[in-house]
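Project outcomes to date are best conveyed with an example. Our students and postdoctoral researchers have been running inverse folding experiments weekly, and each run begins with a structure described purely in tokens. The record below, which covers 202 residues, was selected by the lab manager from last quarter's runs and is presented without edits.
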């Protein structure tokens, strides 16, 4: 299978009468984005921004890693690159964000990885603006967790995704970079600390 041929809708089993939708071995649910935005706001208000960010990074990482393992096992990918590229395709088809990759270079044996691109229509940035207003820092925390997990799973080494621009900061799009942990500076420390135990599993 090529990444460009992947169609989530075609492989989802809708069980409207039983209340259970299944994608391969995973139960999938659809929530109202506004309700998640409100939950997110309440996490920020009750825990503070730093702890809420940690928890949402972790939520995103778990989601991304589960999706990665499922997709790796469920299809016969034509090339390794198709398994990497289907991550953005799946995240887009899940209605989370439209992912536009720009540069992607990797060498799995050498542990070299660089991937950057743009997000459009991030639901997390949209909800942050509605419930919390414009931020002075990037806010697509669960999305960064998701991409970090997918690419860590693909590479077999921990990598981290961070935004450099974000709609939640008033930018017109979100821009991001994914690279190995030791290539980030101290700005990444809170993100790496939040995901430390997950990274040990990669
Ligand atoms: Zn963003």
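After processing, the design step wrote out the following sequence:
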């Amino acid at each position: 299978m090529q990444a460009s041929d992947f169609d989530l809708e075609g492989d989802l089993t809708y069980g409207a009468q039983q209340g259970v939708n299944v994608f391969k071995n995973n139960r999938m649910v659809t929530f109202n984005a506004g309700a998640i935005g409100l939950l997110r706001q309440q996490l920020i208000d009750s825990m503070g921004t730093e702890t809420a960010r940690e928890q949402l990074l972790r939520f995103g990482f778990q989601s991304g890693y589960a999706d990665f393992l499922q997709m790796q096992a469920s299809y016969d990918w034509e090339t390794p690159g198709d398994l990497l590229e289907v991550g953005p395709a799946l995240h887009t088809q899940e209605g989370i964000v439209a992912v536009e990759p720009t540069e992607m270079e990797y060498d799995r044996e050498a542990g070299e990885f660089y991937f950057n691109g743009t997000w459009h229509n991030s639901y997390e940035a949209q909800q942050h603006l509605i419930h919390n207003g414009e931020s002075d820092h990037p806010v697509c925390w669960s999305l960064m967790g998701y991409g970090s997990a997918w690419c860590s799973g693909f590479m077999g080494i921990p990598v981290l995704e961070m935004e450099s621009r974000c709609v939640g900061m008033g930018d017109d799009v979100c821009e991001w970079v994914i690279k190995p942990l030791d290539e980030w500076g101290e700005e990444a420390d809170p993100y790496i600390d939040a995901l430390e135990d997950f990274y040990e599993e990669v």
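The chain has one domain: 33-199. Helices lie at 8-11, 33-47, 49-74, 80-93, 123-132, 141-155, 189-194, 196-199. The training component of this project remains on track.
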